[in-house]
Amino acid sequence: MSGNIQLNISIGDQTKILVVSADCTIDHVLEEIQRKFIPTIEANQLEVLHAGTIISYGSERRLVALEITHASSLTVVMGLKGGQFKGPRPDGQYTKRVSFTCDKKIRCIVSLDNDEMHPRAIMPCGHHITSESMVEHCLYEISKKQNRITCPECSKPWDWTTVEQVAKFKDDEKIKIQNSLSENFLMKSRGYFPCPGCKIWCTRTDKSMTIIIVKRILWIAVLPYSLANHKRLI
Questions:
Q1: Can you give the pTM of this predicted structure?
Q2: What ranges in the chain are assigned the alpha helix state H?
């Protein structure tokens, strides 16, 4: 893969456009986010969510290995002192290419379509779905505030890269669904909080410290953690 790709970077209630090389590492992306958009924070304090999966600084993995492609959406999370929730992280394995079938005996689990003009993808769980139904199903899942896409038949989770291969999203669909999955993950997970001023999502990285909100930007550790200090600060 070569050339540049455009990424949609969600920082609080703003979306920024970042153009990077398709061959660059996730560390380079985080460094560019820090340099261009959040210069008061070190790059190694940043994480991003891609379709509900956390990616941290320091992995030195390339975007292609993380299946981050043109028009992907990344939600920025700042790591600040105070304790951290461990959410799902990428395993670094390439997703196998999805196979499709036109066998009229096999129907889509959503639309029941078996038309040869609408091939059905063979999903990892063994069920089958058309590209059109996958888009419809993803929109339904995010409307229910889900933070991952699951099979409507057996409820087994489908990894994002498989979903993307099957759905063949338009750019606006991809942005909407990825952002919604990440936001739903953050809303459901303990340990992630939006700054009430700038709205940037934050997580805490040192359990020994209590934090308070200062002005508009972020939380700063001020006292060793104790129940008395915690009550006094809140």
A1: 0.70
A2: 26-36, 131-143, 160-167, 171-188, 227-233
